[in-house]
Amino acid sequence: MRTFTCTITTLAILLSVLLISSVHVNTVQAYDQKGDIINSNTVWTKLNSPYTLTGSVGIAEGATLTIDPGVTVNLGSYTLEVNGTLIAQGTSAEKIVFNSDLPNMQPALNINLPYDNPSCKIENAVLYQTSIHAQSYYSNASVTINNCSFEGNAGINIWGSTTVSNSYITGGVSLRGSSVVSNSKMLNGIDISGSYTLSDNTITNSQGIWVVDAGEAGSSTQTAKILNNIIYGGSTAGINLASSATVQGNLIIDNQIGISVRSEQDTSVLNHNTIIDNKIGLRTPASGTKVNNNNFEKNTENNLVAGNSAVDVTNNWWGSTDSSVIDNKILDNTDDFNLGKVNYTPFLTMPDSQAPSSIYTPVTTPNPSNSQNPSVRPDQSGPQTVAFLGLDWMQIAALVLLTVIAVLLVFVIVFLRKRSVTSQAF
Q1: What is residue 162's predicted lDDT score, i.e. its pLDDT?
Q2: What total number of domains does the chain contain?
Q3: 209-244, pLDDT tens digit by residue?
Q4: What is the value of pTM for the model shown?
Q5: Structural domain of 215
Q6: What is the 3-state secondary structure (H, E, C) of the chain?
Q7: Which of 217, 261, 329, 416 is paired with 296 by a 20 to 30 Å CA distance?
Q8: Which pLDDT value is given to residue 215?
């Protein structure tokens, strides 16, 4: 009996040690990703999150790195270089988080696509101080970004094929090639050229200068469209128009210059825009610039400043039906012989109904639509999978089971001892 009791006691002690040890199980599993090349298809899972880079990591051409929902990637000051494919698709409930430890206002090039034909798809993610960079003549990158929040001055710089949608971007955006940017909020402007569509965005530039720098299209077969955006806060210009584009349905407000046309060969089409409360509404349109059915009003200095060429800007609303009032806000050769003649008659007798309202909501920080506060760095511990004492549900189940076993063993030991005492009494 004494041997059996000792055995039971020893087992109870061992289970107790295991029970105590289980409380100290790593509360959030972590995986240190050493600098290496990923040569085959690889998945970074939530179970091993967070992934902390201790050196730069490369994804080889032909290989795919998939990052599961709920994963946190701590890049530090290292680079995730994509020469193959990166797929990071979170969900609205389980966002993927990328962190960099570089100081604010020093954006890291943490996700870099420099060579070959790399591909990157990131959805439902928070990128803190983590920029995406593919500025290289050797890279024909294909990048898709949807429902992401770029925080801490994180931005996008891509030469290739780019789609950005439903995103919040605190850093600058620079795109070359074929681009579609829609339904997004940008705090530091966008520099865009090639064949592009920029639609339904709210864009400002907290660092000043221009808000939209619309560069060269690149070829006659490429198209440039700036549609239905809210563009405000440019200390130089709302739209700096360097190439021919369709500019339609935009609210261009509170800039030094609403639209500045830079080329005398410009053939842009400007219609159904509301250009209001700027210092100058439209500056130096070319003779080929088509300006019709826009609303110009309340621009404090001039609604229009002519360039060297004569321009036809008929059928616009100028905030008045009084020709003398309209004349007073147009600077052309009647004021300066070095300027071209502006023909604005006939003009609209009421605002164009297809142009947008002048009511708008400025982009603010934090982003109201984002569950993370952009002014606060996301928690580097990653999405929490713990519920009690730092344990996930499987560890909790084990803890409960061990507790039950320990209690039963105690009862068995007490019962056997009492029985032994009773037997000795007789």
Answers
A1: 96
A2: 2
A3: 899 999 875 555 568 999 999 999 999 999 999 889
A4: 0.80
A5: 188-362
A6: CHHHHHHHHHHHHHHHHHHHHHHCCCCCCCEEECCEEECCCEEECHHHCCEEECCCEEECCCCEEEECCCCEEEEECCCEEECCEEEEECCCCCCEEEEECCCCCCCEEEEECCCECCEEEEEEEEEECEEEEECCCCECEEEEEEEEEEECCCCEEEEEEEEEECCEECCCEEEEEEEEEECCEECECEEEEEEEEEECCEECECCCCEEEEECCCCCCCCCEEEECCEEECCCCEEEEECCCCEEECCEEECCCEEEEECCCCCCCEEECCEEECCCEEEECCCCCCEEECCEEECCCCEEEECCCCCEECCCCECCCCCHHHHHHCEECCCCCCCCCCEECCCCCCCCCCCCCCCCCCCCCCCCCCCCCCCCCCCCCCCCCCCCECCECHHHHHHHHHHHHHHHHHHHHHHHHHHHHHHHHHC
A7: 217
A8: 81
Q: Is the pLDDT of residue 277 over 70?
A: yes
Tokens (6 digits) for 311: 């321009």
How does the average pLDDT of the chain come out, rounded?
82
Which of 15 and 138 is assigned the larger pLDDT?
A: 138
Residues 270 and 393 grouped into a single domain: no
